[in-house]
Fold:
Amino acid sequence: MQPAAQHTAVLPVRGQVQLHVLPEPAALAAATAQRFSQWLSPVEHERWQRFRLEADRQRFLLARALVRSVLGTCVQQAPESLQFVCNHYGKPELLQPAATPEQTLKFNLSHTRGLLVLAVTAADEIGVDVESITREAEMLALAERYFAASEVAMLRAADPLQLQELFFRLWTLKEAYVKARGLGLQLGLDSFAIGLGRNSTPALLHAADDDIARWSCFSIAHADVFRIAAAVNAPTASLQLNEVSLF
Structure:
């Protein structure tokens, strides 16, 4: 993994996963919120206005600003000029009529309270997920209900002191793979399994309807309390972590 850098988004090369990480501030200055709101499309603006809680409004605005700022820098366009379309399952894509297949950007966004993460690749399908490991959860009960049998066995065999960390590693990795596939709820969490090999390197062990050899998985800790995972349909891939500053 390359060392963290400031917001210097450039077009990724094939096989490279860029993770752009934005810490969520306690509150946005009014002038900053106004600037970001001017980047929104009419549909995004309508969605933004429908949020009733201020925390949800701010997180949505920050998420759209992160996507538009990073992708706009990558393709050298103003954030407000970008246009997006969604696939049949609702996964958004950047509209790039003039881009070749090799230049077509793929992206995925995840956020939790305190942190937003945007993953960007060139042409390779990508999924990302972030969770706080301090989040309360009935870990074994959730795993037994949703995870593959081998993952449940891994959790049951874990040191109790490491259970929470391991659970959120698996949870984020599974969510990242589901998002990369772009099939929404159609893909069950128990239809595939994630394993942790030598040095705890994550890998897709099996999938009911997929070629596991075409996937790379990543799992990293951030700021002690966050676990970030990414899955990309590239058999060999590298990861670059960028700390973003929009303010």
